[in-house]
Design a protein that fits this description.
Elements lengths: L7 H18 L4 E4 L6 H9 L4 E4 L3 H15 L3 E5 L9 H10 L3 E7 L25 E4 L9 H14 L7 E7 L34 H11 L4 E5 L8 H12 L3 E3 L14 H5 E2 L2 H4 L3 H6 L4 E5 L6 H10 L3 E6 L13 E4 L2 H11 L8 H22 L5 H11 L5 E4 L3 H9 L8 E3 L10 H9 L4 E6 H6 L12 E7 L17 H6 L6 H7 L3 E5 L2 H15 L5 E6 L2 H34 L1
Parallel strand pairs: 1-2, 1-3, 3-4, 4-6, 5-6, 7-8, 7-10, 8-9, 10-11, 11-12, 13-14, 13-15, 15-16, 16-18, 17-18
Helix pairs in contact: 1-2, 1-5, 3-4, 3-16, 6-12, 7-12, 13-21, 14-15, 14-20
Length: 598
Protein backbone atom coordinates (compact mmCIF):
# COMPACT_ATOMS: atom_id res chain seq x y z
CA UNK A 1 0.00 0.00 0.00
CA UNK A 2 1.17 3.56 -0.71
CA UNK A 3 0.59 6.61 1.49
CA UNK A 4 -2.91 7.08 0.09
CA UNK A 5 -3.77 3.53 1.07
CA UNK A 6 -4.16 2.41 -2.52
CA UNK A 7 -2.65 -0.70 -4.10
CA UNK A 8 0.37 0.61 -6.06
CA UNK A 9 0.17 -2.31 -8.48
CA UNK A 10 -3.47 -1.52 -9.19
CA UNK A 11 -2.60 2.16 -9.70
CA UNK A 12 0.15 1.18 -12.14
CA UNK A 13 -2.16 -1.03 -14.18
CA UNK A 14 -5.04 1.47 -14.19
CA UNK A 15 -2.66 4.20 -15.32
CA UNK A 16 -1.08 2.02 -18.02
CA UNK A 17 -4.44 0.81 -19.30
CA UNK A 18 -5.80 4.37 -19.47
CA UNK A 19 -2.69 5.52 -21.33
CA UNK A 20 -2.71 2.64 -23.84
CA UNK A 21 -6.45 2.93 -24.46
CA UNK A 22 -5.92 6.62 -25.19
CA UNK A 23 -3.06 5.84 -27.59
CA UNK A 24 -5.38 3.47 -29.42
CA UNK A 25 -8.06 6.16 -29.55
CA UNK A 26 -5.47 8.59 -30.96
CA UNK A 27 -4.73 6.19 -33.81
CA UNK A 28 -1.88 3.96 -32.61
CA UNK A 29 -2.22 0.56 -34.26
CA UNK A 30 1.20 -1.08 -33.85
CA UNK A 31 3.52 -1.70 -30.92
CA UNK A 32 6.77 -3.64 -30.60
CA UNK A 33 7.58 -4.91 -27.11
CA UNK A 34 10.85 -6.21 -25.74
CA UNK A 35 10.40 -8.28 -22.55
CA UNK A 36 11.40 -6.80 -19.20
CA UNK A 37 10.23 -6.39 -15.63
CA UNK A 38 9.89 -2.63 -15.07
CA UNK A 39 7.77 -2.23 -18.22
CA UNK A 40 5.28 -4.92 -17.11
CA UNK A 41 2.21 -2.68 -16.58
CA UNK A 42 2.52 -1.10 -20.02
CA UNK A 43 3.36 -4.39 -21.74
CA UNK A 44 0.27 -6.00 -20.27
CA UNK A 45 -1.91 -3.05 -21.28
CA UNK A 46 -0.59 -3.17 -24.84
CA UNK A 47 -1.04 -6.92 -25.16
CA UNK A 48 -4.65 -6.63 -23.94
CA UNK A 49 -5.65 -3.72 -26.21
CA UNK A 50 -7.34 -5.35 -29.26
CA UNK A 51 -6.98 -2.24 -31.44
CA UNK A 52 -3.17 -2.43 -31.21
CA UNK A 53 -1.17 -5.17 -32.93
CA UNK A 54 1.65 -6.03 -30.53
CA UNK A 55 4.78 -7.91 -31.59
CA UNK A 56 7.30 -9.20 -29.04
CA UNK A 57 10.98 -9.02 -30.06
CA UNK A 58 13.61 -10.01 -27.52
CA UNK A 59 16.48 -7.93 -28.98
CA UNK A 60 15.80 -4.21 -28.49
CA UNK A 61 18.01 -3.24 -31.41
CA UNK A 62 16.16 -5.53 -33.80
CA UNK A 63 12.87 -4.45 -32.25
CA UNK A 64 13.58 -0.79 -33.00
CA UNK A 65 14.43 -1.44 -36.64
CA UNK A 66 11.42 -3.74 -36.98
CA UNK A 67 9.19 -0.92 -35.69
CA UNK A 68 10.96 1.46 -38.05
CA UNK A 69 10.08 -0.76 -41.00
CA UNK A 70 6.42 -0.87 -40.03
CA UNK A 71 6.31 2.90 -39.64
CA UNK A 72 8.08 3.45 -42.97
CA UNK A 73 5.44 1.37 -44.71
CA UNK A 74 2.36 2.81 -43.00
CA UNK A 75 3.49 6.38 -42.39
CA UNK A 76 1.87 6.08 -38.96
CA UNK A 77 3.61 5.98 -35.57
CA UNK A 78 4.64 2.64 -34.11
CA UNK A 79 5.25 2.34 -30.38
CA UNK A 80 8.37 0.77 -28.89
CA UNK A 81 8.41 -0.45 -25.29
CA UNK A 82 11.32 -1.76 -23.25
CA UNK A 83 12.51 -1.99 -19.67
CA UNK A 84 14.99 0.31 -17.92
CA UNK A 85 18.78 0.37 -17.96
CA UNK A 86 20.79 -0.23 -21.13
CA UNK A 87 17.72 -1.57 -22.98
CA UNK A 88 16.55 1.72 -24.57
CA UNK A 89 20.13 2.57 -25.60
CA UNK A 90 19.85 -0.30 -28.09
CA UNK A 91 17.20 1.72 -29.92
CA UNK A 92 19.63 4.53 -30.73
CA UNK A 93 20.68 3.55 -34.30
CA UNK A 94 17.05 3.13 -35.37
CA UNK A 95 16.11 6.39 -33.62
CA UNK A 96 18.76 8.23 -35.64
CA UNK A 97 17.43 6.69 -38.87
CA UNK A 98 13.86 7.62 -37.90
CA UNK A 99 14.89 11.20 -37.20
CA UNK A 100 16.80 11.53 -40.47
CA UNK A 101 14.12 9.85 -42.60
CA UNK A 102 11.15 11.55 -40.89
CA UNK A 103 9.64 8.27 -39.69
CA UNK A 104 7.21 8.44 -36.72
CA UNK A 105 8.02 6.35 -33.63
CA UNK A 106 6.83 6.48 -30.03
CA UNK A 107 9.74 5.49 -27.76
CA UNK A 108 8.36 4.34 -24.40
CA UNK A 109 11.15 3.49 -21.96
CA UNK A 110 10.20 2.17 -18.55
CA UNK A 111 12.29 3.44 -15.63
CA UNK A 112 12.89 3.31 -11.89
CA UNK A 113 11.18 6.06 -9.85
CA UNK A 114 12.98 9.25 -8.80
CA UNK A 115 13.94 7.98 -5.31
CA UNK A 116 16.10 5.22 -6.86
CA UNK A 117 17.94 7.43 -9.33
CA UNK A 118 21.56 8.11 -8.41
CA UNK A 119 21.64 5.68 -5.43
CA UNK A 120 23.18 2.64 -7.05
CA UNK A 121 19.91 0.80 -7.67
CA UNK A 122 20.39 -2.08 -10.09
CA UNK A 123 19.49 -1.54 -13.75
CA UNK A 124 19.15 2.20 -13.18
CA UNK A 125 20.77 4.73 -15.50
CA UNK A 126 19.98 8.31 -16.41
CA UNK A 127 17.47 7.88 -19.24
CA UNK A 128 16.33 11.49 -19.41
CA UNK A 129 17.43 13.13 -22.64
CA UNK A 130 18.89 9.81 -23.75
CA UNK A 131 18.33 10.50 -27.47
CA UNK A 132 19.37 14.15 -27.43
CA UNK A 133 18.45 16.12 -30.53
CA UNK A 134 17.41 13.00 -32.45
CA UNK A 135 13.81 13.15 -31.20
CA UNK A 136 11.06 15.62 -32.05
CA UNK A 137 10.04 15.80 -28.40
CA UNK A 138 11.03 14.21 -25.08
CA UNK A 139 8.81 13.84 -22.02
CA UNK A 140 9.80 12.71 -18.52
CA UNK A 141 6.74 11.61 -16.56
CA UNK A 142 6.39 10.96 -12.83
CA UNK A 143 5.55 7.51 -11.49
CA UNK A 144 1.78 6.82 -11.42
CA UNK A 145 0.02 7.86 -8.23
CA UNK A 146 -3.44 7.07 -6.91
CA UNK A 147 -5.97 9.61 -8.05
CA UNK A 148 -4.15 10.44 -11.29
CA UNK A 149 -6.07 12.60 -13.77
CA UNK A 150 -7.29 10.42 -16.68
CA UNK A 151 -8.32 13.48 -18.71
CA UNK A 152 -4.76 14.79 -18.75
CA UNK A 153 -3.37 11.34 -19.59
CA UNK A 154 -5.70 10.94 -22.57
CA UNK A 155 -4.75 14.34 -23.92
CA UNK A 156 -1.08 13.60 -23.39
CA UNK A 157 -1.45 10.41 -25.44
CA UNK A 158 -3.07 12.37 -28.28
CA UNK A 159 -0.32 14.97 -28.05
CA UNK A 160 2.62 12.57 -28.43
CA UNK A 161 0.97 10.83 -31.39
CA UNK A 162 0.55 14.25 -33.02
CA UNK A 163 4.14 15.26 -32.18
CA UNK A 164 5.44 12.16 -33.96
CA UNK A 165 3.61 13.17 -37.16
CA UNK A 166 3.83 16.96 -37.51
CA UNK A 167 5.15 19.42 -38.37
CA UNK A 168 7.98 17.01 -39.29
CA UNK A 169 7.46 13.32 -38.56
CA UNK A 170 9.96 11.55 -36.35
CA UNK A 171 10.55 9.81 -33.01
CA UNK A 172 9.12 11.04 -29.70
CA UNK A 173 10.56 9.78 -26.40
CA UNK A 174 8.49 9.25 -23.25
CA UNK A 175 10.27 8.06 -20.09
CA UNK A 176 7.85 6.20 -17.81
CA UNK A 177 8.89 5.30 -14.23
CA UNK A 178 6.95 2.73 -12.18
CA UNK A 179 7.14 1.89 -8.47
CA UNK A 180 6.87 -1.61 -7.12
CA UNK A 181 4.77 -3.65 -6.76
CA UNK A 182 4.29 -3.41 -10.50
CA UNK A 183 1.01 -5.36 -10.67
CA UNK A 184 -2.05 -5.60 -8.38
CA UNK A 185 -2.11 -8.02 -5.48
CA UNK A 186 -5.73 -8.91 -6.23
CA UNK A 187 -6.93 -11.89 -8.26
CA UNK A 188 -5.99 -11.27 -11.95
CA UNK A 189 -9.62 -11.94 -12.88
CA UNK A 190 -10.48 -8.68 -11.11
CA UNK A 191 -7.83 -6.55 -12.86
CA UNK A 192 -8.97 -3.74 -15.17
CA UNK A 193 -9.42 -4.65 -18.80
CA UNK A 194 -8.86 -2.74 -22.03
CA UNK A 195 -11.63 -0.44 -23.17
CA UNK A 196 -12.49 1.37 -26.36
CA UNK A 197 -12.11 5.08 -25.70
CA UNK A 198 -13.55 7.70 -27.99
CA UNK A 199 -10.92 10.26 -28.89
CA UNK A 200 -11.20 13.29 -26.62
CA UNK A 201 -8.61 15.37 -28.46
CA UNK A 202 -8.10 15.36 -32.22
CA UNK A 203 -4.68 16.82 -32.98
CA UNK A 204 -4.98 17.11 -36.75
CA UNK A 205 -2.11 18.75 -38.60
CA UNK A 206 -3.08 21.41 -41.10
CA UNK A 207 -1.89 21.60 -44.71
CA UNK A 208 1.39 23.46 -44.80
CA UNK A 209 2.05 25.82 -47.71
CA UNK A 210 4.51 28.63 -48.37
CA UNK A 211 3.35 32.16 -49.11
CA UNK A 212 1.30 32.18 -52.35
CA UNK A 213 3.52 35.02 -53.56
CA UNK A 214 6.55 32.72 -53.33
CA UNK A 215 4.80 30.07 -55.42
CA UNK A 216 3.77 32.65 -58.02
CA UNK A 217 7.30 34.06 -58.19
CA UNK A 218 8.77 30.57 -58.56
CA UNK A 219 6.38 29.63 -61.37
CA UNK A 220 7.24 32.86 -63.20
CA UNK A 221 10.98 32.14 -62.89
CA UNK A 222 10.59 28.58 -64.22
CA UNK A 223 8.26 29.43 -67.10
CA UNK A 224 9.75 29.50 -70.58
CA UNK A 225 13.24 28.40 -69.51
CA UNK A 226 15.05 25.06 -69.80
CA UNK A 227 15.08 23.22 -66.51
CA UNK A 228 14.99 19.83 -64.79
CA UNK A 229 12.89 18.40 -61.97
CA UNK A 230 14.89 16.09 -59.67
CA UNK A 231 12.92 13.77 -57.39
CA UNK A 232 14.88 12.04 -54.63
CA UNK A 233 13.64 9.65 -52.00
CA UNK A 234 10.79 10.51 -49.70
CA UNK A 235 7.33 9.56 -48.57
CA UNK A 236 5.17 11.38 -51.08
CA UNK A 237 1.36 11.42 -50.83
CA UNK A 238 -1.01 9.67 -53.22
CA UNK A 239 -1.36 11.60 -56.44
CA UNK A 240 2.17 13.00 -56.33
CA UNK A 241 3.34 11.13 -59.46
CA UNK A 242 0.46 12.49 -61.50
CA UNK A 243 1.01 16.00 -60.11
CA UNK A 244 4.74 15.93 -60.98
CA UNK A 245 3.95 14.80 -64.53
CA UNK A 246 1.40 17.59 -64.89
CA UNK A 247 4.00 20.12 -63.74
CA UNK A 248 6.62 18.65 -66.09
CA UNK A 249 4.15 18.84 -68.98
CA UNK A 250 3.35 22.47 -68.20
CA UNK A 251 7.08 23.26 -68.22
CA UNK A 252 7.97 20.72 -70.95
CA UNK A 253 10.92 19.46 -68.93
CA UNK A 254 12.40 16.08 -67.96
CA UNK A 255 12.16 14.50 -64.51
CA UNK A 256 15.18 12.78 -62.97
CA UNK A 257 13.51 10.13 -60.78
CA UNK A 258 15.47 8.13 -58.24
CA UNK A 259 13.99 4.73 -57.38
CA UNK A 260 13.08 5.84 -53.85
CA UNK A 261 10.92 8.63 -55.28
CA UNK A 262 8.29 6.06 -56.25
CA UNK A 263 8.14 7.48 -59.78
CA UNK A 264 9.85 4.68 -61.69
CA UNK A 265 7.16 2.03 -61.22
CA UNK A 266 3.42 2.53 -61.46
CA UNK A 267 0.51 3.13 -63.80
CA UNK A 268 1.59 6.74 -64.39
CA UNK A 269 4.61 5.42 -66.31
CA UNK A 270 2.44 3.93 -69.04
CA UNK A 271 1.58 7.29 -70.58
CA UNK A 272 3.23 10.69 -70.22
CA UNK A 273 5.72 9.29 -67.74
CA UNK A 274 7.52 7.19 -70.35
CA UNK A 275 8.51 10.31 -72.29
CA UNK A 276 9.39 12.57 -69.39
CA UNK A 277 10.70 10.43 -66.53
CA UNK A 278 14.43 9.68 -66.78
CA UNK A 279 15.68 6.61 -64.94
CA UNK A 280 19.04 6.27 -66.73
CA UNK A 281 20.32 9.75 -65.89
CA UNK A 282 23.05 8.38 -63.60
CA UNK A 283 24.50 6.77 -66.72
CA UNK A 284 23.99 9.44 -69.38
CA UNK A 285 25.32 12.18 -67.10
CA UNK A 286 28.70 10.46 -67.49
CA UNK A 287 28.86 11.95 -71.00
CA UNK A 288 30.79 15.22 -70.70
CA UNK A 289 29.50 16.36 -74.11
CA UNK A 290 25.91 15.89 -72.98
CA UNK A 291 26.44 17.70 -69.68
CA UNK A 292 28.20 20.59 -71.41
CA UNK A 293 25.50 21.06 -74.05
CA UNK A 294 22.36 20.46 -71.98
CA UNK A 295 22.71 23.05 -69.23
CA UNK A 296 19.52 23.95 -67.33
CA UNK A 297 18.66 27.45 -66.18
CA UNK A 298 16.93 25.94 -63.16
CA UNK A 299 16.66 22.76 -61.11
CA UNK A 300 13.59 22.03 -59.00
CA UNK A 301 14.30 19.38 -56.33
CA UNK A 302 11.83 17.30 -54.33
CA UNK A 303 12.65 14.84 -51.55
CA UNK A 304 16.04 13.78 -50.27
CA UNK A 305 19.31 14.85 -51.80
CA UNK A 306 20.27 12.49 -54.69
CA UNK A 307 21.78 9.11 -53.81
CA UNK A 308 24.56 8.80 -56.35
CA UNK A 309 27.77 10.79 -56.64
CA UNK A 310 27.20 11.20 -60.37
CA UNK A 311 24.03 13.25 -59.88
CA UNK A 312 25.55 15.10 -56.94
CA UNK A 313 28.59 16.04 -59.03
CA UNK A 314 26.35 17.07 -61.93
CA UNK A 315 24.42 19.43 -59.66
CA UNK A 316 27.68 20.94 -58.47
CA UNK A 317 29.00 21.28 -62.04
CA UNK A 318 26.01 22.82 -63.82
CA UNK A 319 25.36 25.41 -61.05
CA UNK A 320 21.97 26.55 -62.37
CA UNK A 321 21.02 30.15 -61.73
CA UNK A 322 18.02 28.87 -59.80
CA UNK A 323 17.89 25.78 -57.61
CA UNK A 324 14.58 25.52 -55.80
CA UNK A 325 14.12 22.96 -53.04
CA UNK A 326 10.67 21.73 -52.00
CA UNK A 327 10.88 20.22 -48.52
CA UNK A 328 8.78 19.57 -45.41
CA UNK A 329 8.86 22.25 -42.71
CA UNK A 330 12.15 22.10 -40.84
CA UNK A 331 14.05 20.31 -43.60
CA UNK A 332 17.01 22.01 -45.30
CA UNK A 333 18.08 19.54 -47.99
CA UNK A 334 20.99 21.51 -49.43
CA UNK A 335 24.40 19.98 -48.56
CA UNK A 336 26.03 21.81 -51.49
CA UNK A 337 24.66 25.17 -50.25
CA UNK A 338 23.41 25.92 -53.75
CA UNK A 339 19.68 26.45 -53.19
CA UNK A 340 18.35 29.86 -54.16
CA UNK A 341 14.87 29.27 -52.71
CA UNK A 342 13.19 26.87 -50.30
CA UNK A 343 9.48 26.11 -50.56
CA UNK A 344 8.58 24.49 -47.25
CA UNK A 345 5.28 22.68 -47.14
CA UNK A 346 3.16 19.86 -48.55
CA UNK A 347 4.84 18.58 -51.73
CA UNK A 348 1.59 17.61 -53.48
CA UNK A 349 -0.12 20.93 -52.85
CA UNK A 350 2.95 22.93 -53.89
CA UNK A 351 3.34 20.89 -57.08
CA UNK A 352 -0.28 21.42 -58.08
CA UNK A 353 -0.13 25.15 -57.42
CA UNK A 354 3.09 25.52 -59.40
CA UNK A 355 1.57 23.64 -62.35
CA UNK A 356 -1.46 25.91 -62.41
CA UNK A 357 0.72 29.04 -62.31
CA UNK A 358 3.20 28.15 -65.09
CA UNK A 359 2.74 30.37 -68.17
CA UNK A 360 5.19 29.00 -70.77
CA UNK A 361 7.07 25.85 -71.73
CA UNK A 362 10.80 25.33 -72.22
CA UNK A 363 12.38 26.06 -75.62
CA UNK A 364 11.60 23.45 -78.33
CA UNK A 365 13.73 20.34 -78.24
CA UNK A 366 14.83 20.66 -74.62
CA UNK A 367 12.92 17.68 -73.21
CA UNK A 368 13.47 15.58 -76.35
CA UNK A 369 17.26 15.72 -75.89
CA UNK A 370 16.94 13.92 -72.56
CA UNK A 371 14.53 11.36 -74.01
CA UNK A 372 17.08 10.56 -76.74
CA UNK A 373 19.87 10.17 -74.17
CA UNK A 374 17.66 7.88 -72.13
CA UNK A 375 16.94 5.73 -75.19
CA UNK A 376 20.64 5.57 -76.11
CA UNK A 377 21.54 4.22 -72.69
CA UNK A 378 18.71 1.66 -72.89
CA UNK A 379 20.07 0.37 -76.21
CA UNK A 380 23.62 0.22 -74.83
CA UNK A 381 22.44 -1.78 -71.83
CA UNK A 382 20.58 -4.26 -74.03
CA UNK A 383 23.65 -4.70 -76.22
CA UNK A 384 25.95 -5.18 -73.22
CA UNK A 385 23.61 -7.86 -71.88
CA UNK A 386 23.51 -9.73 -75.16
CA UNK A 387 27.32 -9.82 -75.37
CA UNK A 388 28.02 -11.41 -72.00
CA UNK A 389 26.63 -13.99 -69.62
CA UNK A 390 28.51 -12.52 -66.64
CA UNK A 391 26.68 -12.73 -63.32
CA UNK A 392 26.89 -9.33 -61.68
CA UNK A 393 24.66 -6.62 -60.24
CA UNK A 394 23.82 -5.24 -63.68
CA UNK A 395 21.80 -8.39 -64.42
CA UNK A 396 20.77 -9.25 -60.86
CA UNK A 397 18.77 -6.07 -60.21
CA UNK A 398 16.72 -6.19 -63.46
CA UNK A 399 16.06 -9.92 -62.97
CA UNK A 400 14.65 -9.33 -59.50
CA UNK A 401 12.39 -6.49 -60.58
CA UNK A 402 11.18 -8.33 -63.68
CA UNK A 403 9.91 -11.29 -61.66
CA UNK A 404 8.26 -9.45 -58.77
CA UNK A 405 4.46 -9.32 -58.97
CA UNK A 406 2.71 -5.95 -58.85
CA UNK A 407 2.19 -4.66 -55.32
CA UNK A 408 5.45 -6.08 -53.99
CA UNK A 409 7.57 -4.12 -51.53
CA UNK A 410 11.28 -3.78 -52.25
CA UNK A 411 13.70 -2.91 -49.45
CA UNK A 412 17.17 -1.95 -50.66
CA UNK A 413 20.28 -2.03 -48.51
CA UNK A 414 22.93 0.66 -48.34
CA UNK A 415 26.31 0.96 -50.09
CA UNK A 416 26.42 -0.72 -53.53
CA UNK A 417 22.86 -2.12 -53.37
CA UNK A 418 21.12 1.26 -53.51
CA UNK A 419 23.53 2.55 -56.17
CA UNK A 420 23.00 -0.50 -58.36
CA UNK A 421 19.24 -0.17 -57.94
CA UNK A 422 19.53 3.45 -59.07
CA UNK A 423 21.61 2.54 -62.14
CA UNK A 424 19.95 -0.69 -63.28
CA UNK A 425 16.34 -0.72 -62.05
CA UNK A 426 14.78 0.49 -65.27
CA UNK A 427 11.07 1.32 -65.09
CA UNK A 428 7.64 -0.18 -65.63
CA UNK A 429 3.93 0.52 -65.29
CA UNK A 430 3.90 -2.30 -62.71
CA UNK A 431 3.37 -0.82 -59.24
CA UNK A 432 6.19 -1.54 -56.76
CA UNK A 433 6.97 0.26 -53.50
CA UNK A 434 10.59 0.99 -52.57
CA UNK A 435 12.12 1.45 -49.12
CA UNK A 436 15.57 1.88 -47.64
CA UNK A 437 17.27 3.15 -44.50
CA UNK A 438 18.75 6.07 -46.38
CA UNK A 439 18.26 8.65 -43.63
CA UNK A 440 21.63 7.84 -42.09
CA UNK A 441 22.65 5.21 -44.70
CA UNK A 442 23.75 2.65 -42.13
CA UNK A 443 24.06 -1.06 -42.81
CA UNK A 444 22.76 -1.85 -39.31
CA UNK A 445 19.26 -3.21 -38.82
CA UNK A 446 18.44 -3.62 -42.52
CA UNK A 447 16.95 -7.12 -42.24
CA UNK A 448 14.94 -6.15 -39.17
CA UNK A 449 13.56 -3.14 -41.01
CA UNK A 450 12.61 -5.28 -44.00
CA UNK A 451 10.90 -7.75 -41.67
CA UNK A 452 8.83 -4.90 -40.26
CA UNK A 453 7.83 -3.81 -43.75
CA UNK A 454 6.83 -7.38 -44.63
CA UNK A 455 4.14 -7.21 -41.97
CA UNK A 456 2.12 -5.26 -44.54
CA UNK A 457 2.75 -7.60 -47.48
CA UNK A 458 5.27 -9.59 -49.50
CA UNK A 459 8.69 -7.92 -49.40
CA UNK A 460 12.05 -8.47 -51.07
CA UNK A 461 15.18 -7.24 -49.30
CA UNK A 462 18.27 -6.73 -51.46
CA UNK A 463 21.37 -6.47 -49.25
CA UNK A 464 25.10 -7.10 -49.37
CA UNK A 465 26.91 -9.85 -47.49
CA UNK A 466 28.26 -7.50 -44.79
CA UNK A 467 24.81 -5.96 -44.28
CA UNK A 468 23.27 -9.41 -43.83
CA UNK A 469 25.97 -10.50 -41.39
CA UNK A 470 25.68 -7.26 -39.43
CA UNK A 471 21.98 -7.84 -38.78
CA UNK A 472 21.95 -11.64 -38.78
CA UNK A 473 19.73 -11.58 -35.70
CA UNK A 474 17.12 -9.83 -37.82
CA UNK A 475 16.58 -13.08 -39.73
CA UNK A 476 14.77 -14.37 -36.65
CA UNK A 477 12.04 -11.84 -37.43
CA UNK A 478 11.56 -13.27 -40.92
CA UNK A 479 9.98 -16.47 -39.64
CA UNK A 480 6.30 -16.66 -40.51
CA UNK A 481 6.48 -13.55 -42.68
CA UNK A 482 6.48 -13.12 -46.48
CA UNK A 483 10.09 -11.90 -46.65
CA UNK A 484 12.54 -12.81 -49.40
CA UNK A 485 16.15 -11.85 -48.63
CA UNK A 486 18.56 -11.66 -51.58
CA UNK A 487 22.17 -11.40 -50.41
CA UNK A 488 24.67 -10.24 -53.04
CA UNK A 489 27.83 -11.90 -51.78
CA UNK A 490 30.85 -10.22 -53.35
CA UNK A 491 33.22 -11.10 -50.54
CA UNK A 492 33.08 -8.02 -48.36
CA UNK A 493 32.59 -4.28 -48.63
CA UNK A 494 32.66 -4.08 -52.42
CA UNK A 495 31.77 -0.39 -52.45
CA UNK A 496 35.24 0.46 -51.14
CA UNK A 497 36.71 -0.86 -54.41
CA UNK A 498 35.42 2.38 -55.94
CA UNK A 499 36.74 4.66 -53.19
CA UNK A 500 40.12 5.95 -52.04
CA UNK A 501 40.94 3.11 -49.58
CA UNK A 502 41.14 0.62 -52.48
CA UNK A 503 44.70 1.77 -53.23
CA UNK A 504 45.96 1.18 -49.68
CA UNK A 505 47.99 -1.91 -48.71
CA UNK A 506 45.69 -2.30 -45.69
CA UNK A 507 42.59 -2.31 -47.92
CA UNK A 508 41.47 -5.91 -47.37
CA UNK A 509 42.02 -5.85 -43.63
CA UNK A 510 40.63 -2.40 -42.86
CA UNK A 511 37.85 -1.86 -45.42
CA UNK A 512 36.98 -4.93 -47.49
CA UNK A 513 36.64 -7.06 -44.31
CA UNK A 514 35.17 -10.25 -45.83
CA UNK A 515 33.17 -12.16 -43.21
CA UNK A 516 33.35 -15.61 -44.82
CA UNK A 517 29.90 -16.38 -43.43
CA UNK A 518 28.03 -19.56 -44.29
CA UNK A 519 24.66 -18.12 -45.23
CA UNK A 520 23.13 -21.57 -45.63
CA UNK A 521 23.84 -22.32 -41.97
CA UNK A 522 22.67 -18.85 -40.95
CA UNK A 523 19.33 -19.38 -42.70
CA UNK A 524 18.99 -22.86 -41.20
CA UNK A 525 19.49 -21.44 -37.70
CA UNK A 526 16.19 -19.59 -38.03
CA UNK A 527 14.38 -22.22 -40.11
CA UNK A 528 14.53 -20.20 -43.34
CA UNK A 529 14.73 -21.82 -46.76
CA UNK A 530 18.07 -21.24 -48.50
CA UNK A 531 18.97 -21.11 -52.20
CA UNK A 532 22.33 -20.37 -53.84
CA UNK A 533 22.68 -18.68 -57.23
CA UNK A 534 25.91 -18.29 -59.20
CA UNK A 535 24.31 -17.69 -62.61
CA UNK A 536 21.32 -15.75 -63.90
CA UNK A 537 19.50 -19.03 -64.58
CA UNK A 538 20.10 -20.11 -60.97
CA UNK A 539 18.73 -16.80 -59.71
CA UNK A 540 15.61 -16.91 -61.84
CA UNK A 541 14.82 -20.47 -60.74
CA UNK A 542 15.43 -19.61 -57.07
CA UNK A 543 13.17 -16.56 -57.38
CA UNK A 544 10.33 -18.54 -58.91
CA UNK A 545 10.50 -21.10 -56.09
CA UNK A 546 10.75 -18.47 -53.38
CA UNK A 547 7.86 -16.38 -54.68
CA UNK A 548 5.62 -19.45 -54.58
CA UNK A 549 6.44 -20.17 -50.93
CA UNK A 550 6.01 -16.54 -49.80
CA UNK A 551 2.29 -16.91 -50.34
CA UNK A 552 2.39 -19.34 -47.39
CA UNK A 553 4.42 -16.89 -45.30
CA UNK A 554 7.52 -19.05 -45.69
CA UNK A 555 10.57 -16.77 -45.96
CA UNK A 556 13.59 -17.52 -48.11
CA UNK A 557 17.22 -16.39 -48.34
CA UNK A 558 18.89 -16.43 -51.76
CA UNK A 559 22.66 -15.99 -51.82
CA UNK A 560 23.73 -14.49 -55.17
CA UNK A 561 27.46 -15.19 -55.40
CA UNK A 562 29.28 -12.52 -57.39
CA UNK A 563 32.95 -12.46 -58.38
CA UNK A 564 34.09 -9.07 -57.06
CA UNK A 565 36.89 -8.36 -59.60
CA UNK A 566 34.52 -9.30 -62.42
CA UNK A 567 31.82 -7.06 -60.96
CA UNK A 568 34.28 -4.16 -60.69
CA UNK A 569 35.31 -4.66 -64.32
CA UNK A 570 31.71 -4.89 -65.52
CA UNK A 571 30.70 -1.71 -63.66
CA UNK A 572 33.54 0.27 -65.18
CA UNK A 573 32.89 -1.16 -68.63
CA UNK A 574 29.22 -0.19 -68.31
CA UNK A 575 30.05 3.41 -67.37
CA UNK A 576 32.31 3.68 -70.44
CA UNK A 577 29.63 2.20 -72.70
CA UNK A 578 26.93 4.53 -71.38
CA UNK A 579 29.06 7.64 -71.86
CA UNK A 580 30.14 6.52 -75.33
CA UNK A 581 26.54 5.85 -76.40
CA UNK A 582 25.46 9.36 -75.46
CA UNK A 583 28.63 10.91 -76.89
CA UNK A 584 27.85 9.16 -80.19
CA UNK A 585 24.35 10.59 -80.07
CA UNK A 586 25.77 14.09 -79.69
CA UNK A 587 28.23 13.45 -82.54
CA UNK A 588 25.45 12.29 -84.82
CA UNK A 589 23.47 15.46 -84.14
CA UNK A 590 26.54 17.59 -84.91
CA UNK A 591 27.16 15.76 -88.19
CA UNK A 592 23.51 16.12 -89.09
CA UNK A 593 23.73 19.85 -88.45
CA UNK A 594 26.88 20.17 -90.60
CA UNK A 595 25.18 18.41 -93.50
CA UNK A 596 22.15 20.69 -93.17
CA UNK A 597 24.42 23.77 -93.37
CA UNK A 598 26.14 22.45 -96.50
Amino acid sequence: MNEAGADQGLTNLLWAQTFVDALAAAGLRDAVISPGSRSTPLALALLRQPAIRSTVVIDERCAAFFALGRAKDSGLPVALLCTSGSAPANWFPAVIEAAQSATPLLLMSADRPAELQGWGANQTVDQLGLFGTHVRAAHALEAPQAGFAPGWLRRFAARIVAESLAPLAGPVHVNLPFREPLLPAADPAQWPQATTVDSVVLAAAGLSLPDPAAIAATAAELSGRPGIIVCGGGRFPAGFAEAILALAAALDCPVFAEPLSGLRFGAHFAGEGRRRICVRHESFLRSRDFVDTQRPDWVLRFGDFPVTKQVQQWLAAVVPAMQIVVAPPGRWSDPQHAATRFLHGDALAITRRLASAVTATAPPGWCEAFARAEAAVERALEQAGSESDAFWEGVIVPALLARLPAGFRFFCGASMAIRDLDTFSGSSDKLLAFFTNRGASGIDGNLSTAAGISGAGATLALVGDLTCAHDSGGLALARGRPLLVVVVNNGGGGIFEYLAPAALPEFARGWLTPVDADFAHLAATWGITYRRAATLTDLQAALDTALATLARNEPCLIEAVVDRPLSLSRHRDWWRRAAAAVDALAGARTAQGDRAER
